[in-house]
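Changelog excerpt

This revision adds worked examples to the README so contributors can see how folded entries look when concatenated. The first example is reproduced verbatim below.
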Amino acid sequence: MRIALGVEYDGHRYSGWQSQVGSATVQDVVESALAIVANHPLRVSCAGRTDAGVHAREQVIHFDTDSLRQRRQWVLGSNVNLPRDIAIRWAHPVDTSFHARFCAYQRSYRYVINNRPVRPALRHASASWIHASLDAERMHEAAQALVGEHDFDSYRTVACQAKSPVRTINKLSIVRQGEYLMMDVTANAFLHHMVRNIAGVLIAIGSGEKPVGWAQEVLDQRSRVKGGVTAPPTGLFFMRVDYPPEFMLPQQPLVQDVLP
């Protein structure tokens, strides 16, 4: 039987999602908790690997097992054995044709910025702090140049292993809520550091350091060396993955106007 799970985590204590020798990762912790419930070792596949310090509101994973458990048992049994910064939100049996990564048709991220002159003590692990005043409307205007299908070579890390830099951004918006700015981006897929590199470019534009047209200029260069500063992982959330409706996953709605 194949089980899909929705996983929420605060990533600031972990070296990313993917299992690594000698490092604490979200995958290792989740697999250990699930193995206790299943009563056998198991491996999970995820919708999208997140880097060190990156959080998830609803990462989707799947695993195969011969153990018969109720959905409630997978959720509660796993959460009893997980630390407070990782939680299983839901469990759902799926057909073996389901794959958390390959069946997804779009993914959504949110980048949260605390924009005030004084360093924050609260939410310091879940929002990036920018002390210079940022113009959210200016950032949103610049961001629209990136919507659609483009070669995002300038917006990925030089270590990115994707065969093609072409991706399609379906939506990219920046809004302000008090002292917080939220950048929401939805695309068919993302390149390594793509969201953080977009955030870095838009922050430079929002502060007035660069003109509104710079986002387009960076895109046209198709070279990472022209792409500006990579924004820090603090503040980045993997928000949602979308799948064809036939899988009937009990996912949470993507709320636009609430901080994660």
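The second example, added in the same revision:
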Amino acid sequence: MLLKILICLIVGYGFGCFSTSYVIGKLNHIDIRNYGSGNAGTTNALRTLGWKAGLLTFVGDAIKAIIPILLVRYIVNTEDMLEQLLLLYTGLGVVLGHNFPVWLNFKGGKGIAATGGVMFAFDWRLGIVAFVIFLVVTAATRYVSLGSLIISILFPVWMLILYPGNIHMLIVSLVFTISAFYKHRSNIKRLLNGTENKIGQKVQIEKK
């Protein structure tokens, strides 16, 4: 059991280390981590390079979570709780790889698009609910960070509702939430102070 979990974490981490926004930034002759928030993720790609880069980053980061989870689901090919648990650990590995990619000196993103991909691959209903909630909150407040934090809370809530009594799965889902809040700690401070950046604000860059 422990070996299977470790393998799933490693596989997920390997996929997660692919930084979509970093690659897109390099195609535009910049290191995106040197601009805006310094975050290699969807929101910073949107603010720094525009909506096309933001959309490509979101899709790329979601897909890199979906692929390994579907792969593990195909290999394990059971319907019991072990499969579900291994899928969660694979997704957790993806988020850890996205947030702390070894080849970028562990300076990555905040893991929300990747978490969204994990949710969709784990249970498409969860993915759709999370996406709708994110859109509604972000559209209403114009705070991407707030929408991100709220959907991270949805993960353990979903486990409590659909997998009552499964403490192991609840704990793993809580790690996604804790990771999101940790990576958004500066955003949380700005939200409380009323100084958080709103969607639509752009970062000026000098292209070489």
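Reviewer comment on example two: The radius of gyration is 17 Å. The CA atoms of residues 5 and 39 lie 29 Å apart.
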